[in-house]
Every structure is written in C-alpha cells, then in structure tokens.
Specification:
heterotrimer; A mainly alpha (192); B alpha+beta (592); C alpha/beta (247); A: 192 residues; mainly alpha; Arc Repressor Mutant, subunit A; 2 domains; elongated; B: alpha+beta; six-stranded mixed β-barrel; 13 strands; 15% strand; binds adenosine-5'-diphosphate; binds magnesium ion; ABC3_permease_C (chain B); transmembrane helix (chain B); Macrolide_Exporter_MacB (chain B); FtsX-like permease family protein (chain B)
Chain lengths: 192, 592, 247
C-alpha cells in the first residue's frame, strides 16, 4: 500500500482524495473493499518516515484531505527500488497443508471436511470475481486484474480438488485396511 | 413441410458440392454398371433387329428350297413348288454352286449364286457398297469380305477364274459368313463353313466348270405359321430352310457377345456396388457425427434417412441417365459392323423397358450400398454418434499376438486392417471381381478364334465379336476397379494418417510406413486374387459350350502379379505423399 | 422448493459394463429443476456429468429410475416421441459446438426450426433475430470455419434457443474456449438467466458458478453437495452480488 501511494505521487503532487479516487478506479470492483480513511493513515505514516511532505493549500480548512502531498528525494529512491523489485507474493499453501496433516494425524477433524469448507469459500470468491468480470461496463485494464484473481482462485480450487481426492483415498484406505492390520498383528510370529 | 424439404435440398446441394470428387466417382461407378446393362439390353434387340430389318428391306423369303439333285433334275424337282397350294410368291430358281475362292493367297470355301438384274419378287439383296453383279464381277457378303480382307475393286479367283469385286450386299435368304452352308456334294448332309458370293447368272456355269450346279427357290407362304413351325426340313429330295433358321444362324454371331456382356454386366454391377460401398463407407464415417447432431436437435429416424438417401438417389438418377446414354451410343459399335445384315438407321431412343431396367439398377445400387450404413448411422446411439467415435476396432487377440512377431511393415499393416475390417473386406471383393473378369478375358484370348474353310483359316466373326464385347467389359471393369482401388487406398491412408504419424514418432521410417500400408491392402487383396483366377476360369467354362482351351498358367500368374502390384503401387503413392508431410502437421490436423 | 419442477429425476441410474468392469456412471440420483432456474452441475472429469445430462435430455436411456420433463415421463418414451420432444422443448449445447460445416451460421441456427416444420421464412426471421441476440448479426452468412471458437459456440447457443425450448442443456460449453471466449459465453448465459430461461450446465469449469442460481457438486456418479445462491439482478456495480451463503 505504501509503495503504491508513493508511486502515484511520483508524477506530480496530489490531494489525498485524488489519490483515493485514482486507486479505486484502477481496482474497479475490488476497490470497493478499500477503507476511506486508509489512504490518510498511509500518508501520515509516509510523512513520519520522511518519504512525503505535505502542504496546506491556501483558503481551505486544514484537513488531511485538503492537503497536497509530494515526494521527498528519499521517497523518489524508494519508488525506484520498488519498481525494480522482483519479489512475487507467495500464496501460503504450506500452512493449510500442514493443517490437514495435523488434523488427520491427531484425528482432530476430518481433512475432507476442512477441504470442503475451504473449497466453498474459494468457490464463493471465484463466483464473485467472475461475476465482476462479466460486467460489460468493466474497464479492460481493470478486467485484467479481475482475470488474474479468477485465474489464481481457479488454481487454488484445482489444488483443493487434488487434496480432496488424496485425502478421500487415504480415508478409504485407512478404514478398509484397519481391521486386517490388527488381525495380522494378532498372529503369533506373524512376520512370515 | 416446406421447411423440411428446403432443409433436405439444402443439405443435398451443399454436400454434393463439398465432395465433388466423391460425387463424380459415384457417378462414374453407377454409370458404368447401368451403361453395360444398357449395352446388354441393346444387344438383346440386336439379336433379331438387324435380321428383321434386312428381311423387310430385301423382301426375304419365308422358306428357301434346294433340291439334293443337280442340273435339270433339280429344276424339275423345283418346278411344281411355285404353284403349290399356300405359296403366294416366289423367286428363282437361281443357280448355285459350291466352289473354292482364293483371295490374298487364301483359298476358302464359297457358296456362289448366279443372279442377274431382272427384278425378283423375293430376295432382292441390298447392295451396301459398290454395285450389283455384272458380267466379270462378283459381289461378296460383307462379313465374308471383311474376314477375307477384300474390298470393292480387288480381284478374287473363283475356281481358277479371275473376277473383280464390284460390291458387297446383304441378303436374308442365306445365313452370313461363316454359316453359309457349303457342301462337297448336293444332297450331302455334311455342311461346312463358308461365305456367300453372287456372280452374274450367265457366268456361273463357266465358273463351276466340272463342279455340279444346282438351284435354290425362294418362297413366300400364305400361312405365317407354316414357315415358323420348322427350321430345317427334308422332304421329297428337297431341303427346305425356314427364315427362322437363317435368323438364328445370324443371331449366333452376336449371341456369345451378348452372353459376355450379360455376365459382364453382373460383374460390373457387383463391382459398382463395391465401389459405391467403398465411397459411401468413407462418407458415412463423416456422417455419423452429423446424424448425432440431427438427433440432438430432434430429427426422427425418417428425416435422417431422407436427408442421406436423397443424396444417393439423386446421384443414382443422374448416373442412370449417363449410363443409358453411353450404353445406347456405344451399342451400334458392337451390333452393326458388317454383321452381314442391315444396321440400324439413325439412333433410336432406348426402349422403355431398357430405361426402366437401367434406372432401377442405378437406384438399386445406390440404395443397396447406402441403406445399410445410413440405417446403421440412424440407429446408433445419439451419444456415440456425437462423440464421433468410430466403432471401436474389435481387438482380435490372434492379430495382436501375430503382429508382435512380425517385421515393422507387416505389423503396421496388420494393425491398420484390424482397425477397419469392413474396408479390408471391400478390398478383397474388389480384387476378386477384377481378377475374375480379367481371368475370363485371358481364357477368351487363349481360344482359337479362327475357322477353317477348306485349306485356309479365317477369323471367326463370332469370336471376334465376343472378344470385342469382353474387351468392352474389361475396360469398364478396369476403370471401375481402378476407381475402387484409388478410393479405398486413399481413404485407408487418410484414415490411418494419425496412427501412422504416431508410428513415425515412435521411430518408424517412411519406408516402413509405406510398406505397412501396402501390406494392409495386399493382405485382403491376395485372397481376392487367389480366388479370382479360378473363378474367372470357371465363369468362362460355365458360359462357353464345348471344350475351350485353357490359358497358359504363366498368363494367370502374370495376371495375379499385375493386380497385386497395382494395388501395392496405388497404396504406396498416397502414403508416400502423406509421409512427406511433417509428422507434427499430421498430428495437429487429425483427430485422434 | 417453490413451484412445480420443470425437470425431475427420480433415482436415475446409468451403468456401463458388467461384472468387475461395471461403472456406475450415474448412481441413483434425485434431482428437481424448477422452471427458470440456472443449475450448474460441477465435478471432475469422469464423474458422470455428461451421462447425466444425456439422460436428462433423452439422448440416452437410464438403467433405472424415472425422468420427467414438463409432466412427460421421458425415459420410457418412444424414440419418435423423444425426437419430437427434443425438437420442441430441449436445446442442446455441446463442448465441441457440433455445427454443420457446410451450412452458414444462420442456416445452422434455423436447422432446428425447419426440422420442427416451421415455414422457411419464419425460421429465417427467427434465426436472424437470435443471431442478433447473441451478437453475431453481422456473421450470419459466414461458414463455421470462418468463425472463432467463441462465435461458434454462440451460434450453437442461438441454435439451441431457436425453438424457444423449455430447457437448455449444456455440456462443457466452455471446454474448448479460451478465457475471452468463455467470457462471451458466460455473458450470454447470464442474459438467458435474467430472461428466465431454464438452464442446466454440466462442466468442470468453476467459472460457471458466476451465472448459476444453484450449484451441485458431483462425485463418482452421485451428488456430493447442493447449494443455492441468491443473486441480485446483474446490475450491481463492482462485485454487485450479495452472497447468500450456503445451505
Ligand atoms: N459408452 C460408455 N461405455 C462405458 N463406460 C462409459 C461410457 N460412457 C461413459 N462411460 C464411463 O462413465 C463415466 C462417466 O462418464 P461421463 O459421463 O462422460 O463423465 P464426465 O462427463 O463427467 O467427464 C466414466 O467413468 C466413463 O468412463
Ligand atoms: Mg463430459
């Protein structure tokens, strides 16, 4: 968030409300979730860190949304570094995976049920995003973002389906072979 | 209703236009069969048509009388006949002698009749070339002239006297060469082959020299039954020959040709059916998906059948038209030439019977070859048809077992055949019929086609004509067989493109692939050829009376090798063409 | 459930093979689809979706159970009656379009109407109207080979609609399409949904959820889960939808 706000100020100084509406425009339907005050909180933090300065415009009451914000040289440097950065957000699958393993091992919960709940949640998000994409009025640039979200969700969904298949099979195998294992264990010298 | 009709017509037109080559091939196949049938039917008419025409044009007699005696005795024997009860007209008696004729170094038997310019009530031979007899000149019956190779203006030698050929003429009072009935002695029952010539009446005695001279008398009877109730009759020392007998002797000339055409048209019908089946089989694979789609949008089986059959019926009708025209135009070539009879004048429209029969045949071929696959398609499970899955090839365990132990080319061939058993069967039928026809032709060629007339041998017009008819059949058979072979190999190659491409990704060389396809065609073709040779010989023996000679085994062997190499070559060409395309292209453009 | 079901399946089953090779492609499924509902049946490949759809559309007969469409029992119907029913009341959309290559777009669309015995003029008018509705008015005279995948599928959908069917059955309608073409088809389905067309789509493409009122998950021939969404009219801005939760 901080980097984005800085980058938006790189071209020219701007009012806080301008920044906010530009951001919403670029996010399209996804921008709805953004909190109105969030941008000012971010700007205040950036000012404290010495990355932006703000000026009170004349003839207006001194409120955060009436101030004009501009980049400091340190801010400029930070923007350049951000643009060159290649780190890619990693979806955190490890945690969910370990959750399933742990749940199964300790018989805390049925992994299949856990997966199912997640699957529904992902499906719900996918549905919402796809519906957003269906809007004919959506700006193509914004549509690109929506498409990215849909693609990720579909990938997640596929992975969840793979998980479901695996854990269902596990379940079945465990239930089916359990009695036999006990039988064999009961045989004297059963290591034949 | 209008909408459905529109739909049927639209699909018909589009499909015909989209598959032009197949449409043309179908047309050729069915036309060939109907054309041959028309030819056969035309010869039916030719058996009596020309004789009837000649009889009418030359005022042919009902009965010809010839005594067993010679000279004045003969004249005396014939004297009461013109006034006998029931006789309404007569001509003659004309002198007749059985002499030897020499032309181009060949000496043959000739029946010599003395005539003059005086008008005759019966038997006025029609001059076909040159002029009628005059002193020092001879007129020859055209079939005989053809066999001798003489023309108007040539000179021939009769019993040592040189005479100029002044013309050719036809008659209905004596059978044409070689059935002009020559005898060593009048009254002898031994009849020999000969031809008929006319000389001036005043010269015949001189020509005959020491040979006996007798007379013939032409009669017309009041009761038509009296002349048709017998053929040949000897009574009171006089031989009576009815016009029926002469007509039959003349008909014998084209009878064998007729038989050859008839048998040929059966073969061709079978072959045409195989052609149509081959072509249709290729199309039906395509049409299955269409049928599925039709069903999904709610077309009933009747509609589906209508859409598909309409196309073949239209092709059948068009082919009937083409076949009829071709057969009719070709017929005179087989029936007319020098039959010693008057040919037809102008082109007559085909008889209604011929039109109906030929059309029925064309439609029957179209229907027979298409009904089964169309019905199969119409009754397949919609879901299957839509899935476009060709009937899964049956997995024959022995074939799979066998193919593992074979060299690569054979392996590919065996597998390709296992995929399409029906197509392999068509290849077999095709080669079987082709080989049968060719083997029968070879048998025909092996026969002695010459007749002995006295000291020399001449071409027998009957066998020549039969051979002509057989050649017509063979040419048509070869054209059809070629079409069949090309269509079936092409479709086989198109069909096998994908598996062959896969085989190539697995390392098969183009040569192996080509070899494999050739083997795939040769495997069913070989039994076809092996059965076809004896079948052809048997067919010839069946339709030929007497003791025909057998063709040399080397001919038959050469035939088998030729047919098989033709099949192999026809497969190799499209396969090589297909293997020139990069494997990746093939894989991309063909469904699995 | 509100209102009478348009399509009803009672314990339908369809088995393939026998003995050890027996596959229960559809295993005793109960289903009711009320008129106007857009139902998506989702599941992995091979779980029996296509088989179920074919059973529902009378393209295949069940091994067991009953299927009712608009008060007609279709599993025991004669082939002729089924054909009539299909051409009057059912529209099919397939993954591979199944257009006739030799017919132009508009001729493909009017195919079903002509089969149903409509006059050529009316069939043509309606076909043109439908092509306009799917946004292909300017492509009416094109052969399928000259159309993109998405356009072909839209022609196929227009054809499915040509007899004003009671129900449209679609099998993986987006299976052969890229994401842009999928979007076109989904939009078209969304229009159908808002127009009140009853629609059953089977697919493994989760994006279909966007246009479904109800979603059934299928596993190994039976239903694992049946959920309904309440969806506001498709006019809302942004995500524009109210998530109604899972029952
Ligand atoms: N004609 C058939 N013969 C045998 N098995 C079939 C046939 N059709 C489908 N199946 C089997 O039925 C199951 C369901 O197939 P299908 O309905 O096509 O699945 P989906 O459409 O969900 O991918 C699969 O296991 C498939 O192998
Ligand atoms: Mg499927």
């Amino acid at each position: 968030m901080q980097d984005v706000v800085l980058a938006m100020l790189a071209k020219e100084p701007a009012h806080g409300y301008e920044l906010r509406s530009r951001m919403r425009g670029a996010l399209g339907p996804l921008g709805d979730a953004m909190n109105a005050g969030q941008i000012y909180v971010t700007l205040a933090r950036l000012a404290k860190a010495g990355l932006v300065t703000s000026q009170h415009a004349e003839g207006l009451p001194d409120r955060p949304d009436r101030r004009v914000y501009a980049l400091t040289p340190a801010g400029q440097q930070r923007v350049a570094a951000w643009l060159a950065d290649v780190s890619w957000p990693k979806p955190d699958l490890t945690e969910f995976h370990l959750k399933l393993v742990a749940a199964a091992a300790a018989r805390l919960a049925d992994p299949v049920t856990l997966i199912d709940a997640h699957r529904r949640e992902v499906l719900r998000r996918l549905r919402d995003s796809q519906r957003a994409a269906l809007e004919r009025s959506v700006d193509p640039v914004v549509g690109l973002l929506v498409e990215g979200v849909v693609l990720r969700l579909r990938a997640d969904l596929e992975w969840l389906e793979a998980c479901e298949r695996m854990w269902t099979e596990r379940d079945r195998a465990d239930n089916g072979s359990a009695p036999r294992t006990e039988d064999r264990g009961g045989l004297p010298g059963g290591a034949a | 209703m209008g909408g459905r009709l529109l739909l049927v017509c639209r699909l018909l037109v589009r499909d015909l236009r989209r598959r032009r080559i197949e449409t043309v091939l179908l047309l050729i196949a069915i036309s060939a069969a109907t054309g041959t049938l028309t030819l056969g039917l035309a010869l039916d008419n030719a058996l009596d048509g020309p004789y009837e025409r000649t009889r009418a044009a030359t005022a042919g007699p009902d009965v010809v009388a010839m005594p067993g005696t010679t000279g004045p005795d003969a004249l005396a024997a014939l004297a009461p006949l013109p006034t006998a009860p029931g006789v309404t007209a007569h001509s003659g008696p004309y002198p007749i002698a059985f002499l030897m004729l020499t032309a181009h170094g060949k000496t043959v038997q000739a029946v010599v009749q003395g005539r003059d310019d005086s008008p005759a009530a019966l038997d006025r031979p029609a001059v076909t070339t040159g002029a009628w007899v005059r002193p020092g000149g001879v007129v020859i019956e055209p079939t005989f002239a053809n066999a001798l190779g003489v023309r108007t203006g040539d000179t021939v030698d009769i019993n040592g006297h040189r005479l100029r050929v002044v013309g050719t003429a036809v008659t209905a009072a004596r059978a044409v060469y070689p059935n002009a009935d020559w005898r060593y002695d009048f009254g002898s029952p031994l009849v020999q082959l000969a031809g008929l010539v006319w000389v001036d009446r005043s010269e015949i005695a001189a020509l005959a020299g020491t040979r006996p001279l007798s007379y013939t008398l032409n009669l017309r009877l009041a009761d038509p039954k009296a002349s048709t109730s017998f053929r040949h009759l000897s009574r009171g020392g006089i031989e009576y020959t009815s016009w029926k007998q002469i007509a039959e002797a003349d008909g014998r000339l084209v009878k064998k040709a007729h038989l050859a055409l008839q048998v040929g048209s059966w073969l061709l019908t079978a072959l045409a059916m195989a052609s149509v089946a081959t072509i249709v089989a290729g199309r039906v694979v395509d049409q299955r998906r269409r049928v599925g789609l039709f069903k999904a949008v709610g077309a009933g089986p009747a509609m589906i059948a209508a859409v598909h059959l309409a196309e073949y019926l239209v092709i059948g009708l068009a082919a009937a038209g083409i076949g009829l025209t071709a057969g009719w135009l070709a017929a005179p070539a087989l029936t007319n030439p020098g039959a010693g009879l008057l040919g037809s004048v102008g082109v007559h429209p085909p008889a209604l019977r011929t039109v109906v029969t030929a059309t029925a045949l064309a439609l029957a071929i179209a229907a027979a070859a298409t009904v089964a696959p169309v019905l199969r398609a119409a009754t397949t499970d919609t879901v299957h048809a839509l899935a476009d899955a060709a009937t899964p090839p049956r997995r024959r365990r022995w074939r799979v077992w066998l193919s593992r132990r074979l060299p690569a080319a054979l392996l590919i061939g065996v597998r390709v055949n296992a995929r399409r058993p029906r197509r392999a069967r068509l290849v077999m039928v095709n080669t079987l019929i082709t080989t049968t026809a060719l083997a029968a032709l070879l048998m025909g060629l092996a026969q002695d086609r010459r007749v002995k007339l006295g000291e020399s041998e001449l071409a027998n017009p009957q066998d020549t004509r039969t051979l002509q008819a057989m050649l017509v059949v063979i040419v048509v058979v070869c054209v059809l067989a070629l079409i069949n072979a090309i269509v079936s190999t092409w479709t086989a190659v198109l069909d096998a493109r994908h598996p062959l491409a896969v085989a190539r990704t697995l390392g098969a060389t183009p040569a192996q692939v080509t070899g494999g396809m050739a083997v795939a065609q040769l495997l069913p073709a070989t039994p076809g050829v092996a059965l076809g040779v004896p079948a052809g010989i048997g067919l010839y023996l069946m339709v030929t009376p007497g003791q025909p000679q057998y063709a040399p085994a080397s001919w038959m062997l050469a035939l088998a090798v030729t047919v098989l190499s033709a099949v192999a070559a026809l497969t190799a060409v499209p396969t090589l063409a297909a293997t020139r395309r990069p494997v990746a292209d093939t894989l991309r453009s063909t469904p699995a | 459930m509100t209102g009478p079901a348009l399509l009803q399946a009672r314990r339908v089953a369809r088995w393939y093979g026998r003995g050890s090779a027996l596959v229960r492609a559809v295993d005793e499924i109960d289903l009711e689809v009320p008129a106007g509902q857009t139902l998506a049946i989702m599941g992995p490949s091979g779980c029996g979706k296509s088989t179920l759809l074919h059973l529902l559309g009378g393209l295949q007969r069940p091994t067991d159970g009953e299927i009712w469409l608009a008060e007609h029992r279709i599993d025991t119907m004669s082939e002729r009656a089924l054909a009539r029913l299909r051409r009057r009341h059912i529209g099919f959309v397939f993954q591979s379009f199944h257009l006739m290559d030799e017919l132009t777009a508009v001729e493909n669309v009017e195919l079903a109407a002509l089969l149903a015995g409509q006059s050529p003029r009316r069939a043509r008018q309606r076909a043109l109207h439908l092509l306009d509705r799917v946004g292909l008015a300017d492509r009416a005279k094109h052969l399928p080979s000259a159309l993109s995948g998405g356009q072909r599928q839209r022609v196929a959908i227009a054809r499915a609609l040509s007899n004003e069917p009671l129900i449209v059955l679609a099998d993986e309608p987006t299976g052969n399409l890229d994401s842009a073409a999928t979007l076109e088809v989904l939009r078209l389905f969304e229009d159908l949904r808002t127009a009140g067309q009853t629609l059953v789509v089977v697919t493994h493409d989760a994006r279909i959820a966007a246009i479904a009122d109800r979603m059934i998950s299928m596993r190994d021939g039976s239903f694992a889960d049946d959920s309904r969404f309440t969806t506001s009219a498709a006019t809302g801005a942004g995500t524009g939808t109210v998530y109604g939760g899972w029952r």
